[in-house]
Amino acid sequence: MHYDVVIAGGGFAGAYCAKTLGKLLGKNATRRVALIAESNVMVFQPMLAEVAGSSLAPLDVVNPLRQLCRNVDVLKGAIQTIDWSRKTLSIDGGRFTRNHEVGFNQLVLALGSVTDLSRVPGMAEYGRPMKSVSDALRLRAGVINRLEEANLVTDEALRARLMTVVVVGGGYTGVETAGQLLDFLESSRRYYANLRNTPVRVVLVHSHDRLLAEIGPKLGDYARGVLEKRGMEMRLKTRVAEITADRVIFADGGFIEAHTIITTIGNAPNPVVLDLCEQLGIETDRGRVRAEPTLRVPGHPALWTAGDCASVPWNDRGEIKTCPPTAQFAQRQGVQLAKNLVAVMQGREPRPFTYRYMGQMAAIGEHDAVAEVFGFRFSGFFAWWMWRTIYLLKLPGLMRRLRVMIDWTFEVVFPRDLSVVLPPPEDVLRAIHLVEDELLFERGAECRAFFYLRNGSVRLTAKDGTTRVLPRGSVIDQSLVDAEGRWRWTAVAAESADLTAIRGRALKLLQTELQLVRRALDDGS
What we know:
3 domains, FAD/NAD(P)-binding domain, 5-stranded parallel β-sheet
């Protein structure tokens, strides 16, 4: 398969570039233009927090790329590598369609960023990201499951942990997610007989001294004041040092006990983009590809870029800045890039990207928001009404707008839905992070998993007080289990440790195989 133009990435920049090209080139664009995306939908990111808070249905915030980008060939798959010398991309399309090659004459890089949680020990294992609809749905299901567990237990300390939510990151996603979850928990606990008098605790942790730095100190401080008045805790100028299954540990030594941790930090450059830059000797701007005002990469006439992975110069009323990585800029960059591609195909010169900045908005829950529009600042109910009105108009497609309008109307009249329809995950392999002296399992507890110790060490203590330390690379398996399937030792982390747990169907299969091996060895002896 070979195309005149291949657009890599199905976010705002890539989708609107493809949509505009489809309009400008007409029906023949199907053979000339391809959009490659890992998902077959474009996600309206600004509304993800409302999915997590059960204000909107998941289908309200997505738009099928094949319906949005008419006259363009949409290819669903994950780009593995880009071979610039051969002008090809290698795509993993799924279980049966791996290593599929697509050729191009012109390439548009619109892959955005990826999530890298490895910088904070335990964040990848226990931090819930908020990048996709699946993330929002899993978070919603997780929060409801914690309510169900809290309603069941009688241990007050455990109930308090289950009713505590920690959100890491004080940008738009963090503030909006924290506000939505606070609303959801406060309005939902009245349906749980044992939780009506149990306080909800939502903690927002931010490494800087103010929330929403992008929107200015005045509105950021207003948002903080409103959220604190509603009962949200703020931990500003605080960095997370480590996370375990039941606590968030800060760099200053403090900690919060919680079983629900959301992370809205950890954005990192896309490795496919970095690899291509290395091939071409392109110097990046903190991982973002430097672009000319026309969105073309300097020195490479066949390479273009837009969106979060691009560093695009922008003339803001006479002051040259770099476009911020937000949806409103990505969308308009995609449209201008498509026009420039058509101009180049027709032998005309591309035009520079220009845009009059309109402002920014953030909903903070309970019919409250902060907004800056054309230099004017608004807050409170009017800002919330503006937020909903503007984002409703921004949604692509009349059907989506009607769905969202209906759901928002129902939310005012009816309580938020508490249904959990996602099946519990089959964690055959699960990563575990422990801090020093944290318990892995107690002697006498039922063996529910085997463990492989990837890093650190684990200390075992027998009934008579005998101890031994298992080093990195050790396997904790049936050799430590008695005939009734219970652990004969107590295991704690001798130092900070990372393990892989084998459980579920994989554990049962492994136990069966080990029993067969043991019988074969016994018969042979």
